[in-house]
Design goal:
single chain; binds flavin-adenine dinucleotide; globular; alpha/beta; 8 helices
Amino acid sequence: MNVLIVHAHHEPHSFCSALSARAADALHHAGHQVVVSDLHAMAFDPVSDRRNFTTTKNAAYLKQQQEEMHASEVAGFAPDVEAEIAKLEACDAVIFSFPLWWFGMPAILKGWCDRVLAMGRVYGGPKLYEGGLGGATKRGLIIMTTGGGPSMYDGWGLNPSIDRVVEPVQHGIFWFNGFMPLEPFICWSPARMSDEERGAELERVASKAADLFNEPALNLPPIADFPNWQHDVKQRFMVTVRLARKPDEQFHAFVTDERAMLREWKRKGLLLDFTAASSDDPDWRAFLIMRTADRDEVTHHLQQLPLVSYLEFDITQIAPTAV
Ligand code: FAD
């Protein structure tokens, strides 16, 4: 398989660069072809303007998407943009490797997206989501280092959750263009790690990369479920979960499997949200937001939960609501 790594760190000796290189090694070792666009080493120009094109549709007013459509028809992309589009077309998976900057990607990588993901050649018309360049078969992986630790991004701290931070890439770039996003590889605060911990992170990224084409991808909803860009054809339900009987020894043995099943539901796009009271709360409740074809499907899934015999459920259909 062909893998494109788009790497965006200005220091070749950074830990982020070490992770990227280790991932590339593991991919080679697993028999894949790896192409690396090291944006700083290439001095990639991130500024999107007329220099994206060797052609002009309208010299009086620059409308980027219109010029991209034109350039797609007449092979009019500038050589640096054309080279990157060709790499994206040829790859079976793309990896974005970058440090978290301002809750997002560094400008040089954002500029790569702005210039390379061109309307016509890469996306547009029917070329969106599962109909996009990735065809829902190519894969997308984030390898990212951070300054803050996991508790700063778990949704209970001041910062947004890490899922929200990576969503513009996972959904807005990978899935919008038909690349199936994988669970991102986040290396939390490498600057605060010991050498041993950093060594373990290098091994972790190597096994993540080696598994690139085996790991089940995250299932984001297909465009086909939203005809004419209107609301979801599937329904959404809030499930309130209560304890039906007192937990015993066996209950605790099932908790790990229960969590694994909820994670799998999340990956499949069946579980949109989950929250629960503290486990020592005598009035314990959990709340699930589920996306399914109908109520029967919710009931069917709930019956598969390892802890089902301890639980009772209230299922309420929910609807778009303004506040
Ligand atoms: P480095 O400092 O390069 O590496 C850490 C340590 O690893 C160093 O001591 C290095 O010598 C060592 N190392 C390198 N290679 C190896 C190797 N092969 N083996 C073992 N050790 C090695 N953080 C946030 O959480 N949120 C933000 O919004 C955010 N915004 C930022 C905005 C900007 C403009 C900047 C500059 C930083 C921001 N940060 C933010 C922090 C940033 O995300 C982290 O500094 C960065 O991700 C750390 O990764 P690094 O590779 O640069 O670490």
